Amino acid sequence: MTETVHYDREGQIAILTVDNPPVNALGHALRVELLAAIERFEADDAEIAVLVGAGRLFLGGADVSEFGKPPKDPWLPELIGHLERVAKPVVAAIHGAALGGGLEVALGCHYRVALAGAKLGFPEVSLGILPGAGGTQRAPRVVGTDAALELITSGAPVDATRAQVMGLVDRMVEGDDPRLAGIAYAGELLEQGAVARPVADMPAPAAPGRDWSDWNVELEARHPGQIAQIKAAEAVRAACEMSFEDGLAEERRLFDLLVDTPQREALVHAFFLERQVSKLPELKGVEPRAVEAVGVVGGGTMGSGIATAAVLAGLPVTLLEQSEEAADKARLTIEKNLDGAVKRGKLTEEKRGRIDLTTTTDFEALSEADVVVEAVFESMDVKRQVFDQLDHVMKDGAVLATNTSYLDVGEIAGGTRRRADVIGMHFFSPAHVMKLLEVVVPDTTAPEVTATAFALGKRMGKIAVRAGVCDGFIGNRILSHYRAAATEMVLQGASPYRIDAALEAFGFAMGPYKVADLAGLDIGYMTRERKGLQTGEVNPDWDDRLYEMGRLGRKTGRGYYIYDEDSPKGRPDEEVTRLIEEVRAERGVEPREFTDTDIVERYLTAMVNEAARVVGEGIAKRPLDVDAVLLFGYGFPRWRGGPMTYADHVGLATLRDRVARYAEDNPDFWQAAPLLVELADSEKQFKDLN
Ligand code: 3HC
Ligand code: NAI
């Protein structure tokens, strides 16, 4: 077994180095060795100890993969309790990050020094839990109740500078060697005759500046539907109102309660799936090609966003447009995006000054790019012309990617003499903000080209998901199906406003009609025009009439909602309601009532059913790929884990039976996906296929 804690001496100072790559997660083996190392220090004649992390960070927290499994001794809370009661002083020397249980260990030490740039925080709520190793009791004693509440309920880390101002660390130092920083600080402490200083012995913190009930109201508003934040605040309250020991017990009770929730399960699933999506068996051992320069063709909505994302990743970018005017306009948009990034602290002024962006109207200028992403109009003819030109100018080995939303990437590749180098890289709008990237892989694409698209996606900060070729790939294909279910509900009696409200209450950031107003009604209209109405599809003629009335959504001030000074976020429109009533009357539909539950169930059943088809047909390789697409591109609430996780939670037999029931209204549209039926009949779950 490899040693996860090294023990050595520097004069009177003992150094305990945690070495458990990649992130020094506090799994069972490490806890055992850390406890042994602490006991060794107690028995040793060293006068002070420094706890430090090897590698890129101090401690990444509890081992997330152990949640939900039977706990093994020593537990982290016990380990920290023991550490805190060591009679000689212990210093935490923090670099990189001290997160969750890692920060709790630091708070169990008697002194803390952090290197500049280190991040300290409690991300537990983003995993559906709360700091469960004394963090809710010790942090308020050290930084005060208000600051602790903010730190613990937001899940957001603070940097070392802020940590020092808050009193979370005693000292912040420049440099890149935490061992040296720890030894220097420990030496000073020795000279001063410093003694062990357990946080547990500090007085209970005062109540926060605001009432507890105000905190609850705010947390419910900030994190609708989620429980971890509320419970975390409850645990902090225990620190103010109970003894240290009773507070710890209360923290443990609340922690255990959260560990057993579907929200915790969903959030941990989301954490791992962010990393799992890029691990494809087909890419094992496949080296991506080097990417040192990127080209973008088309500088409209998408092209300028993609170019922004690439320059933000530090890549030199050449963007080609049809005319000088269009190229200038694209440059202006990118400059504005970059200014925004500086304002939001995503880009430093210094890096802003060094960005490497060229705009051009000459294809030859793209010849040195390693990857070119095409984002011109959504037309096969236009795209094939562009790819023909790229085929002529691009150097050998360059990757030719298309950002098409729906078109057949294989057909685009087929027009070139280098089909193996052509791939889809489907970004989402706004491309410099949205996390999702669908990598669309036709059969003809070379594995290292796929690997290159994934590597580039990662470098651009995206979560890349592999998709096969079909109309709409994973996301847009599923979207058009659940949107059709919404249209059907409207025709049968639900209002689009009620549908939006019900889905927002479920946890979507925005309901489908608000999303459509944002994207523009022309997008849906043009898609329908291109495809025609397929068998089994719901006739969306009322949507089309809105489009024909010039109601294109936010950009025209009217779509499903009215946008004006009184209602910048949109308000319902009587005219839309009347139009829907007219359409129902024309079709002889007697409107019926849909409750919020009816709406959510139908909408999600449609989503899951189409997702099951997408997995069944191999368009998505695994259910987790679908979850990732919906979570990172379509506003599905993270704390529900994605549609496949939701489906497993509801039960696949229930969903199969719902489809059968809805089919009584519209048998063409509601046909259960073979995979859904197969899994439901054999009492399996989607997660069994991950
Ligand atoms: N437990 C288990 N595995 C973890 C982990 C953790 N806490 N943190 C990271 N990992 C794994 C990742 O899954 C990944 O595995 P892989 O290589 O097999 O895909 C590997 O470590 C590297 O992780 P990243 O790719 O995320 O590495 P980065 O350098 O980009 O980021 C990090 C490092 C900032 C530490 C980031 O991994 C992170 O945010 N981790 C989670 C931190 C966290 O949430 N800690 C709190 C845990 S809950 C807790 O402590 C409860 C306590 O209160 C009782
Ligand atoms: P857009 O209309 O905003 O931009 C297209 C740009 O391409 C225009 O600026 C145009 O001048 C330029 N162009 C057209 N032909 C060209 C040529 N031959 N050479 C160089 N430039 C040329 O369109 P948008 O929305 O940016 O879409 C581009 C592509 O991205 C489409 O395939 C679309 O389906 C896809 N897409 C769009 C999303 C969106 O939300 N708008 C989301 C994801 C993909």
SSE map:
Blueprint: E1 5-10, E2 13-18, E3 25-26, H1 28-43, E4 48-53, E5 61-62, H2 76-84, E6 90-94, E7 97-99, H3 101-108, E8 111-115, E9 119-121, H4 135-143, H5 145-154, E10 158-159, H6 160-166, E11 171-173, H7 178-192, H8 212-222, H9 228-241, H10 244-259, H11 262-276, E12 294-297, H12 301-312, E13 317-320, H13 324-343, H14 349-353, E14 357-360, E15 371-374, H15 380-393, E16 399-402, H16 409-414, E17 422-427, E18 436-440, H17 447-459, E19 463-467, H18 475-492, H19 496-506, H20 512-519, H21 521-531, H22 541-548, E20 561-562, E21 571-572, H23 574-586, H24 596-616, H25 623-633, H26 643-650, H27 652-662, H28 674-681
1,4-dihydronicotinamide adenine dinucleotide is lined by residues 297-303, 320-322, 326, 375-378, 382, 386, 403-405, 426-429, 519.
Explain what you see.
By secondary structure, the chain is α/β, with parallel strands linked by helices. The protein is built from 28 helices and 21 strands. An eight-stranded mixed sheet has the order 14-13-12-15-16-17-18-19, with helices on both faces. Strands 1-2-4-6-8-11 form a six-stranded mixed sheet, with helices on both faces. A three-stranded mixed sheet has the order 7-9-10. Helix 17 (447-459) links the parallel strand 18 and strand 19. Helix 4 crosses helix 5. The mean pLDDT is 96. 3-hydroxybutanoyl-coenzyme A binds next to strand 5, strand 7 and helix 3.
